[in-house]
Amino acid sequence: MTTESVHEVRSMQEGLQAQQGDEYVHCSVGIMAHNEEANIGRTILAVLEQQVLSVCLMEVIVVASGCTDRTVPIVAEIALHEPRVRVCIQEKREGKASAINLLLKQASSPIVVLIGADVLPDASALEYLCAPFKDPKIGMVGGRPVPVNNPATFMGHTVHLLWRLHDHLARTQPKLGEVIAFRNVISGIPIESPVDEISIQALISQLGYQLIYEPACIVYNKGPLTIRDFLKQRRRIYAGHLQVRDQQNYVASTMKVGPIARRLLASRDFTFSDPKRVMWTLGAVTLEGLARLQGSYDYRHKREHHIWQMVDSTKDLEAGKQKVRRICNAQSVLVFRFMLEGAQGYDLSPEGDDREATEAARKLLPLVRSKMRKEDKLSINGPGIMTVVIRAEQHGAELVARRIQEIVEAAPVRTGMRGRKVRVTVAYSSLTFALKAKNGSVTVSSPLFAEAIIAAQAMNADEKGNITYEKRS
What we know:
Elements: H1 3-20, E1 25-33, H2 40-48, E2 55-65, H3 71-81, E3 85-90, H4 96-106, E4 111-116, E5 120-121, H5 125-130, E6 138-147, H6 154-170, E7 179-183, H7 196-206, E8 210-221, H8 227-247, H9 257-266, H10 268-271, H11 275-300, H12 317-323, E9 330-340, H13 343-346, H14 350-370, E10 377-382, E11 385-390, H15 394-409, E12 413-415, E13 420-422, E14 424-434, E15 442-445, H16 449-459, E16 467-469
Parallel strand pairs: 1-2, 1-4, 2-3, 6-8, 15-16
Antiparallel strand pairs: 4-7, 5-8, 6-7, 9-11, 9-14, 10-11, 12-13, 14-15
């Protein structure tokens, strides 16, 4: 981007700020990316589609550091249609701290948000993350990372345990990571730092600002799937914590063993509820201890970690999008209305249109089922109506619905006696309710409100509750 372009964007931003006034928190979102072609587009769109009330997203800056894949072209394509998005190219990969320092030279807003290209923010994450900055004493806010790993496996249990402990500790002693927001009052962080969030946390706190951990700000991430990747990631983090302790005189709360042990015992419903979990928990503690020993060795022997080794098993967010559902305590009903393109031009009978739409839904049902989890329930419930029941919160359900919509609309199907080839367009609704909600409250959002209500009543016929709804186009 040229200097003139930067000035033009900033002039537009200043004009928007003047229109909106001081009741909004204005922020710049920075996404650090190295060869993230599989995830970067999805992450940018998730940021742009955030549901905000008091936050104004001024710009999304992607720092592409030493990328050799299609990361830069993907961002450039998005930027053609969205003026708030721009890419800053770092020709040589110099580490995340260096990329962040480059971002800080570009960011024009008073609040800077850092989010990884390999995480997926919940629909209202930005609102929860930035709203606290209305208080001038607040200098930095961090969100709650929630892993999408399957907790019914050893590594999934290990990753969930790690972030559960992080969540419990951060509520009393803020330890901020994965997604953070901070006041744009620092010029940079130590370029050799392998743990950027803690380096920023140290600088902000030493300026006298307060730190906040906001558990309502949820971002979904994917932890390592293998022991090797887990040790690679955790040894780097611990070596980085030792470096920040000695160079910036700041100790991360997770370095203290005592509080971790107490939280481990307090979480015995997850850690020690049956013999298998006991063994898995002991295995997780052993791995963490080994990683810390390795990190200590690396730090003593001055092994550098600021240019991270890629942890490949954490990068498959396409699979992770569906695994988001495993960690939630909600159930969702997705209602799809199948419509044939040009159906009225071929058959003037509405009954005929409905019949063909139902036939198309039945023929596409196996394709959709092949893309779902075994426990998900699919059925045809009316003329051209497909219903899917999944374990998912509202945002996760929306992601699944969009994926099904893409699959169906990309698959031509043959219908009728003549076997004519047709294309199907899809409208959908999602209905979500908490499994443990005492009042049975239901949140409905979709263009097919009536069908969603019918599906909800069929699902929950014996329960009484209040239904609130929010329609979306």
